[in-house]
Amino acid sequence: MSEGEYFRTGKGGVIEKSYYRVIVRTPEKIEEHVYESATVRSKDRDDYKTTDTLTDKARIIPNCMFSEDTLRYILMEKYMYNVPFDQTVAKLRDLGLKISSSVLGEHVHNALEWITDKMTSCWESAVKKSYISMIDETRVLVGCDIKHKDKDEDKDKKKREYKFKYIWGIYAKSIKLAWSISAGTLWML
Asked: Hey, where are the domains in the chain?
């Protein structure tokens, strides 16, 4: 402050203050890391790949190419904000990752199967301990890609067919856990 200037004060001589707010967006980016891998043969142990020693920033789930943060982002887009895969693919493309909707879906489903396999016994135990459970059966129309032989060519082609499937929803209210069971697969909602 210059000479002769002073702070404005209020009751009891306390300096009056206000807040100056600035919101800054830090754009995110997605990087694709490609690692060269070779198989190592050893006399005293099983074969292993050189990529088996990567840090935990690499793939955290087998058969899923996404890091933990990227997978978390994709699952939040899909299951918290109901964003279709095509829109997530467009967002990822804007962030620097070119990936098809089918590849994204394949890796997300691999991750969900792995998570489901690891968590099923925990979920079952939690629901059994819950004192209030609700179950509902819903019939839904599901689009399925069915492989069939083309009559003119000897190639397999995919054809979209719609079939009615049943989904069973289980809700354990006391522990706020919901399941959706479809075609023998258990998914946490």
From this structure: 29-119, 130-189
